[in-house]
Every structure is written in C-alpha cells, then in structure tokens.
Amino acid sequence: MFGYVLPAQSDLPQEEQALFQTAYCGLCHTLKRRYGWLARLHLNYDMAFLAILLRPPCETVTRRCLIHPVKGRNCACCGDAFDTAADMSVILLWWKIQDEIADRRFAPAWRVLRRAFRGAYRKAAALQPDFDAEVARQIRALSALEQANCDSLDRPADCFARLMEAAADQECDPTRRRILQQELYHLGRWIYLVDAADDLKKDMRRGNYNPLACRFAPSDGTLSPEDRRALGRTLDASVRQIAAAFELDKPDAYRPVVENVVYEGLYLVGAAVLDGTFRRRVRGKRMRRDGKAGSANG
Question: Which class is domain 9-295?
C-alpha cells in the first residue's frame, strides 16, 4: 500500500541513506514485536517517514530478520514514535482491508486476511482510539464520494489528508503539533493524488473509482499533456506547503533526510508517476532528474 515517500538517493550521502534505512528497519521490527509477522504487510517508506516526523530516537542496534538472517541490519531503537507509527499502520491496513471487501463483490482473500488481522486491529484501535475514529470517519466520507463518482480532486484528497493529519495529535507541544498537522495534511493529499495517478489505468480497466478519471476523462487511462501538467501543478503545490511547514520546525538528527525527501524526493516521484517511469520496486532508481511534477513531459 503506497510507498511513494522516497528520498532522492543519488543526492543523499551514504550516511544519511543509512539513517533513513534504520528508520524503515526499526518500524519493521516494531510491527513484528507489537503485532506479529502479519502486520509487516503494511510496512512501507511512507509510514517510516511518518515515524521520522514523529521524532524517534536516532540510536541504533543491530538485528537480524528473515530477509537478513546472517548479517544483521542497523535498526532505530524502538521508542514512542515507532510504537505510534506501528499502531497507525495496523489501523490503516485494517481499513484498507474493509475498503477492499466493500469494493469487491467476491473478496475471499481479503476476508481471510480480515479474520487473521482482527486481533491486531483491536489492540491498535484500543491504543489509538482517536486516530481509529478519525480514519473510520474519513473512510466513510471517501466511500460516499466514490459512490457519487465525485469529479473533484480536492474533496476525496481532503479525506485522506485529514486522515493523515490526525496522526499529529500525538504531539504534545502545541506549536509543533500545528507544524506537524500542516506537513501531514499536505503529505496525505499528495499521496492520495499520486496513488490515483499511478493506478489510473488499472482502475479504469477494472471499473474502479478514480477521481482523475471523473475529472479529466482520460483516453485509455492516459492523461492528456495539459491534464498531466495541471495535476503536476497541484501536486507541487502540496509539496511547497509541506516545505513551508518544515522550515518552521526545529532541527533534529533526521533533518537532512526529511529535507531531501521534501525538496527533491517528492518532486521526483511525482514527475516519475506522471510520465510513467516510476517503479515502486526499484525505490526511485529510474526516476527522472529533470524537474518537478508540474514540468512533467507531455
């Protein structure tokens, strides 16, 4: 699920690449510790970035895992930020499962997954009741827009943005909470629209709701150059809002990583999705290097 929040690795020093990876591995081990192996289904770089924004400790330990059984990897030590990100990952995955079941008349695999995952969800919801309630509220609102075939980009994107914004409520400092709300709101909006662009052809082929299909009426799942530029501009606008909030935040050990993601990584991913060169499995290695999403070629 998702996985678009990536650093521009070629511009990130090796030490800082390793720092980002420690957060990813730290979240992976936290998910297993708190919820078991199945919870790792929702491990992705977006949630690792959320953990970073929640200000985790930067101390690391070496741990082995199924993927790295011989030579361990450096992992960020478990702390409140990773616990919170793990709880929220489980809640988001649960509602993703519910949404998939609602969208498909026959969804046996998703129903099996729901049964297997129910206990983990109940635990996470008990630990994060306010976040769970807000996610449920926004998912219901989004579902209503989908049923109505809403042709607005802003309205469905706002639902997912508010869902992400709710994660900021964990921050005790009111000033930083406001900064974090701005960052997470526009990050959620950006993720929703990038995911819609990435899935456009698949959604049109399957008859699934996609706001881009309703708004732009693309031919065979391909946006026109003009529509692609318009979408790129709104993606870049959200990134600029994230950057504006980021500049108000106090520096910490992860600042160079966040700075790279905000000022380069998000722009590059947006442009790569729009011009069709983005591949999640290569972690950005094929991403274009020549501009922002708004300047994606037609």
Answer: mainly alpha
